[in-house]
Amino acid sequence: MIKFDSRLSSLLMLAAVFTGAVRLQGQQNTAVVPVKMTVTVNVAPDGRKPQINRSDVVVKLSDTAVPVTEWVPAQGDRAGLDLFILIDDACDTSLGSQLNDLRTFASGQVETTAVGIGYMRNATVQIAQNFTPEHEQAAKAIRLPTGFVGAFGSPYLSLIDLIERWPDHPDRRREVIMVSDGIDRARRGRNALVNPDADRASEVAQRTGTIIHTIYFPGVGHWRRNFWEANNGAMALGKLSDLTGGESFFLGLPAPVSFRPYLETLQRNFNNQYWLGFSANPGNRAGLESVAVTTEVTGVDFSYADAVWVPTAK
């Protein structure tokens, strides 16, 4: 009769379990999930843009190259855009000199763009006009800010409130033009580099694929006269735009002479955006992952969110 050593039996069983686990892990790694994001192609001021094919685009997710599955211009039946103009009610009322430029910009949008208007106040958003393709109607909803700080003023908490109330419109770009001095009057953050509300707003925007463009305009109250507060506010706005793939306009702490050049730049960006799709290996939990999008095509560079939401496998 042949007798087995109990220790040898245990080792054989452990080896079998380990082999099965390795096979299972290999099977899990083969599962991929689709990820989609909006990328802006920045071109020279003369507007000339070289041809960019899908094979020219390189995507790295958490420093690992992933296959690109889609690179389509946001035009034709893919041109849908939800654009929200968000104005801080704590802005100085001298903003009135810029309202005609904003109204002209809103009313001049193409028919595939839906425009919404709202005002930030007390960490929420007062909706003046829900998304509508009636651009003249949206333009008429743009009013003078109240010039009132409020009891709990944080433009970043207001932005989060807006994004969380955003209607579900699949296959449409999501973009915000945010006019504010960026000062967190809720006093939850005293440094632009570690402002928790601004960082949270960036994460919510990245998770939902919302691009945030910011325009600095001075606010009211004694904080606007404090260089440290005003400069931190402007820096937080710039960081918010950078992390979400948007543009940030800031020419110093005084009020800009005109919004028109800013709005012309934004319109040019809208006209040069692409839908980028790629396959990602999901983790055990859904979450944000850093992303890098590059190309060797000369004469262009890309603007895009610093991170993208990767869901779990279904």
CATH class of the largest domain: Alpha Beta
In whole angstroms, the N-to-C terminal distance is: 51 Å
Sheet bearing the most strands, described? 6 strands, mixed
**Unreliably modeled segments:** 14-28
CATH topology-level fold name of the largest domain: Rossmann fold
Q: What topology does this entry show?
A:
Elements: H1 6-30, E1 33-42, E2 57-61, E3 64-66, E4 68-73, E5 81-88, H2 99-107, E6 113-121, E7 124-132, H3 135-140, H4 155-164, E8 173-180, H5 196-208, E9 210-216, H6 227-244, E10 248-249, H7 260-270, E11 273-280, E12 287-295, E13 301-303, E14 307-310
Parallel strand pairs: 5-6, 5-8, 8-9, 9-10
Antiparallel strand pairs: 1-11, 1-13, 2-3, 2-12, 4-11, 6-7, 12-14
Helix pairs in contact: 4-5, 5-6
Explain how this protein is built.
By secondary structure, the chain is α/β, with parallel strands linked by helices. The chain has two domains: 32-75 and 273-310, no CATH class; 79-270, von Willebrand factor, type A domain (Rossmann fold). It is built from seven helices and 14 strands. It has a six-stranded mixed beta sheet with strand order 7-6-5-8-9-10. It has a four-stranded antiparallel beta sheet with strand order 4-11-1-13, with no helix packed on it. It has a four-stranded antiparallel beta sheet with strand order 3-2-12-14. β5, α2 and β6 (113-121) form a beta-alpha-beta unit. α4 runs parallel beside α5. The longest helix is centred in the N-terminal third of the chain and has 25 residues, at 6-30. The protein is globular. The N and C termini lie far apart (51 Å). Residues 14-28 have low confidence and may be disordered.
